[in-house]
Amino acid sequence: MDFRKAKYHMTDFSDALTFRSGVTVRNRLMMSPMTTVQSFWDGSLTRDEIDYYTERAEGLGAVITGAANVSDLGKGWNGELSIAHDSMIPGLSKLARGIQSQGAKAITQIFHAGRMTHSEVLRGHQIVSASDVAALRDDAETPRPLTVEEIHQIVADFGEATRRAIQAGFDGVELHGANTYLLQQFFSPHSNRRTDEYGNQSLENRSRFIFEVIDAVFAAVKKYATRPFLVGYRISPEEFETPGIRFADTLWLVRKLSETNLDYIHLSSNNYDRVARDPEYKEYPILHYVHEAVGSTPLVGVGGVRTRKDVEKVLEDTELVAVGQQLLYDPRWAVKLEKGLDDTMVTGSFKDLTEVSGFSHPLHDFQAGRFTDTVLS
Q: What burial class does residue 5 get, using C-beta atoms within 10 Å of its C-beta: 0-12 exposed, 13-18 middle, 19+ buried?
């Protein structure tokens, strides 16, 4: 089904979808990008990581990898995937081929962590952000503000990361503008206190970096892609900080994003039926309001999807549904959904399942710790 005809059609998860870029996914199921900490120290891929994605790709329309940093100073944590150097392309090619071997499209998420990292992760370098404002978390370090020249370089880094994704054989990239990382940091009035053209507390200025990155990514697609290549954007709906991003700000940004050539917008949320904190948007879940705002751009919903009923509920207000933890613990979940084997789906507490998961050692330890620590995603 063409995305232009799909907007208000009651979607079945098995329906194919052709994006405006020309990329077609066989169904509406995507694997949500999740941190696995399975990469080598330099961000290159391990065999465990390639096998992990390949095993979970069967039955899906697309797999979105966990975040890959576009530059060394954009690294958020140890064990993180990197797309910052051409030397990463051979490994990335193996990952793309592994996902595609199962019939799914391979999408890599690209990002810069900004202030959401530590100098230890950056081998002693000070962390950076839009301004010198620390995140509101116990172990936060104070970043130094990026210069305008450095901002321009990071924009170029996103373009180069897109080139590498194309040359590695991926079907697309997702820009990680959510979960308080650098793209969101520029849009947030909490982390962005700049007085130049990238700040000054106006929505237009605070979003300038976002749209420059989008332009650089599409320029790379135009220059290097020889077949359809999609570009998506992930966004968080609101922040708890004061000042911070409010839901009305997000709806403004979503409308602006929908005016670009983005193939989809992906709403990051821990629960698909989450309601906004803003009292003016309490009647419906966040997904409903965002779906109205994105126009003809397909929307991806995510958050707590474990059952057929969850999938159907999400697709009432989206064109695609992303599945995270359920696929992590139940690699053949999409196949079970397709074949009607719902009674064989993994149920129960993810915390309890971790000990019998068979995860690689780094992933096991990360999952064991995530139930008491802050989650990276």
A: exposed
- Please report, to the nearest 10 degrees, the dihedral formed by the alpha carbons of residues 372, 42, 146, 131 taken in order: 10
* Cα–Cα nearest to 59, from 124, 101, 17, 104: 104
Query: Does residue 368 carry a pLDDT above 80?
Result: yes
Q: The tokens of 218 are what?
A: 């599409």
The rounded distance, in Å, linking the Cα atoms of 182 and 180 is 7
What are the φ and ψ backbone dihedral angles of 335, each rounded to 5 degrees?
Answer: -65, -40
Q: Are residues 21 and 230 in contact, defined by beta-carbon separation less than 8 angstroms?
A: yes
CA-to-CA distance for 175 and 188, rounded, in angstroms? Answer: 17
Question: Is 181 a catalytic site residue?
Answer: yes
Q: Which CATH architecture has domain 3-370?
A: Alpha-Beta Barrel (3.20)
Query: What would the mean pLDDT of 84-93 be, rounded to a whole number?
Result: 98
What does the alpha-carbon distance between residue 9 and residue 120 come to, in Å, rounded to a whole number?
49
Please, what is the angle between helix 208-224 and helix 148-167, to 10°?
30
Which pLDDT band holds residue 126 (cuts at 50, 70, 90)?
very high
Q: Is the pLDDT of residue 5 over 60?
A: no
Q: Which residue of the set 52, 53, 181, 281 is catalytic?
A: 181
Mean pLDDT value of segment 151-176: 98
Domain boundaries, the chain: 3-370
